[in-house]
Amino acid sequence: MANYSALIIDLDVRSRENNSAHHTREIDGERLIVRRGQPFSITLQCSDSLPPKHHLELVLHLGRRDEVVIKLQKERGAGDKWWFHQQGAQDEILLTLHSPTDAIIGQYRLAVLVMSPDGRILEKMDKTRFHLLFNPWCKDDVVYLPDESQLQEYVMNEDGTIYMGSWDYIRSIPWNYGQFDDDVMDICFEVLDNSKEALRNSKMDTERRSDPVYVGRMITAMVNSNGDRGVLTGRWTEPYSDGVAPYRWTGSVPILRQWSKAGVRAVKYGQCWVFAGVACTMLRCLGIPTRLITNYSSAHDVDGNLSLDFLLDENLRSIDSRDSSWNFHCWVESWMKRDDLPKGNDGWQVLDPTPQELSDGEFCCGPCPVTAIKEGNLAVKYDAPFVFAEVNADITYWMVQKNGQRKKIRVDQSSVGRNISTKSVFGDHREDVTLHYKYPEGSRKEREVFEKAGQPFPKPTNESTEPGQMQLSIKHAHCCVDLEFLCFVKNEGGRDAVAQLTMLATAVTYNSLHRGECERQTTTVTVPAHTEMLRLQYDEYARCASEHHLIRMKAFLEAPGENEPVMTMADIPLSTPELHIQVPGKVVACQQVMAYISFTNPLPVPLKDGVFTVEGAGLLYATDIHVKGHIAPGQKVSVKLTFSPMRVGVRKLLVDFDSDTLKDVKGVATVVVRKKNHWKPRLVDQITYILS
Q1: Are 68 and 207 in contact (CB under 8 A)?
Q2: Among the listed ranges 136-140, 473-477, 632-636, which one has the minimum average pLDDT value?
Q3: What per-residue string of b and e applies to 587-600 under the rule 16 or more CB within 10 Å gives b?
Q4: Residues 6+ away with beta carbon under 8 Å from 94
């Protein structure tokens, strides 16, 4: 040992070549980031050739305190082991490392050992670190997804679309996932390191990170802050003055960065689409194909009987109920093979990070196979009964009379789980995936699955849901100022009848929290056919309207000869104005570009405290632009912004506008960022240079 001189001069992790081959170049061009089940190479620069009978050994350490140690085999063995082979040429040794397809994801520390013929360590280089991620391009990885277009969307795309509104008036907002932005990958692992499981038993937690089911479940628990060191605190009613209102977020990256920089302190505030957006960012970053899902008319079934019971008083005002129906609810689906479940449960899995109900003692949900939901197989892990109810529950409306007796006024078997939506792989338009979750509504197969899933809560066989002779329907015009509602009354029996029609407009949040009564109108009508109009002016609903811009219209009809009164209901999202965004000229990476943003106030009142929030993956970090003074009715306000794009490619510039009165106005512009052209001499320049 005393006569031994150092052999290894330097170690090159070849990050550019490896990261390009492993689809991680977007994350980082300098650090080594690779995917499991796919070889990668590093180079040792040596002072001389390896002495005869000496050999190299490679050892990996991972975990918060290097709890897991892996010694690489020198030749290929079983498929579930790390191994390497080496090639030497003069003063350079090429080492190719092979990871198993079920390797643990995380940050590894690599130790290269020069061993003597008698097994002594002569030299040790152990400062090299790299990250290993899931590999959806590898056919033996359980997250393997064979369709390249889906991989580009569900792993590589940093821009998304989230669907909101109501089932019959779907609107969308852009979302910046930003999974390849600076620090995001490190923060994802920081989130996992702060889970209860990691803090309780770091070694066991590290070893279980080979399983995407476990990782996905930890992420759904940690995106919300209920009971742990999670990322986001949920809040569904104003005020939000001690944090950021959920509707102001336009992407996940500022949330994750704020959580990390604040010393893993929860960020305020989120609602379902924000929770889902952050989860999608984390899962895509770690290599699990993921897409964001919106379920319209989503049920929250607290007692697990696959039925929602809603109570109304005789004035049609809602009485508090544990169950609820959300205008829309967002979760994510992740693609993975489920080795822990019987055959047929592979593929898309529901993961829901919004804190709703406890699952094994934690506020998390999933992964739950979408195929199990469609077939009513509710015994599979995880949380299948809850997810099934979200898309299938029946709703029963009861009127509580003055004497306390309940009178059934409506049974609705078809409203829950409508137009289940996700962004298409082929562009910025909506793909309907409802038939992935359920058979066609009202079909025999759909009812058979419901009855199968509903045990031990079978639907009473003597209960009729056939419509009576009196029919009600509501139509409305989409507008952001004054509103008009038309209620159509029709008597299928054809005879004249006198009935009392009550129309009630209330302001609600997207998850059905009551914000106030706007207008009530009671009329005596004569059928067989009648049309009644209710007009709602801006000042009649503005005082109680929620940030979700939702008006709920109920119509209630009592007529002689009908066994039960007739009720119908519609949720009407108010239209929001447009933001106009322009980025003129040629856009080049690392060179300044100007963006112009304009907006016109459509309301009959001035807007105060106006602020534009602008961000875009690869373009710029989230930036606020405050509007000075008030924005008068009909006034156009314009702002300009200078920024320098950081990465090339097709990018999205996202803009949000909020004020004291008008909130959650979103806009997006597509920006094509080109490489910076380096000067190349023309042919004549080359000739001139040579001749000179």
Answers
A1: yes
A2: 473-477
A3: bbbeeebebebebe
A4: 41, 42, 43, 44, 86, 87, 88
- Give me the sign of the Cα torsion angle 268, 272, 275, 277: negative
List, by residue number, the catalytic residues. 272, 329, 352
Task: Give the pairing of strands 121-133 and 33-35.
Answer: parallel
Q: Amino acid identity of 598?
A: S
Q: 62: which DSSP letter?
A: E
Q: What is the mean pLDDT of residues 507-519?
A: 88
Residue with structure tokens 């600076």? 182
> Which DSSP category does 188 fall into?
H
CB atoms near residue 430 (< 10 Å): 16
> What CA–CA distance (Å, rounded) separates 628 from 188?
38
Cβ contact 369:346 at 8 Å: yes
DSSP reduced 3-state for 624:
strand
The residues, ordered by sequence, that sit 6+ positions from 29 with a Cβ below 8 Å of its Cβ are 15, 16, 19
Q: What angle do CA 652, 285, 265 make, to 5 degrees?
A: 95
Locate all alpha helices (DSSP H) within 363-438, ordered by sequence: 370-375, 384-392, 434-437
**What gap in Å lies between CA 227 and CA 224, rounded to an integer?**
9
Identity at 309, one-letter amino acid code: D
Buried b (16+ CB within 10 A) or exposed e, 214-238: bbbbbbbbbbbbbebbbbbbbbbee
CB neighbours of residue 263 within 10 Å: 7
Q: Which of the residue ranges 56-70, 506-520, 629-643 would you say has the lowest mean pLDDT? A: 506-520
Q: Which two tokens stand for residue 15?
A: 């990050």
For residue 487, give both structure tokens: 């209620």
Q: Is the dihedral of CA 65, 68, 74, 76 positive or negative?
A: negative
| Number of residues in the chain | 692
What is the distance between the terminal CA atoms of the chain, rounded to a whole angstrom?
Answer: 59
Residues making up the binding site for Ca(2+): 392, 394, 441, 446
681 pLDDT band, cuts 50/70/90, is very low
Where do we find the tokens 């920006």? 671
Report the pLDDT value the prediction gives residue 319, as an integer from 0 to 100.
84
Quick check: pTM over 0.85?
Answer: yes
% of the chain with per-residue pLDDT over 70: 93
Spatial CB neighbours of 608, under 8 Å, sequence gap ≥ 6:
630, 659, 660, 661
Are the C-beta atoms of residues 522 and 502 closer than 8 Å to each other?
yes
pLDDT in tens, 228-287: 899 999 999 889 999 999 999 999 999 999 999 999 999 999 999 999 999 999 999 999
**Tens digits of per-residue pLDDT, 635-651?**
999 999 999 999 999 99
C-alpha to C-alpha distances, 19 to 5, 14, 148, 149, 186, nearest whole angstrom = 33, 8, 18, 20, 16
What's the per-residue H, E or C state across 514-556? EEEEEEEEEEEEEECEEEEEEEECHHHHCCCCCCCCEEEEEEE
Min mean pLDDT across 236-245, 283-292, 374-383, 509-518 is at: 509-518
- pLDDT, residue 624, reads 95
Reported confidence tier of residue 488, pLDDT bands at 50, 70, 90: confident
The three-state secondary structure class of 455 is coil
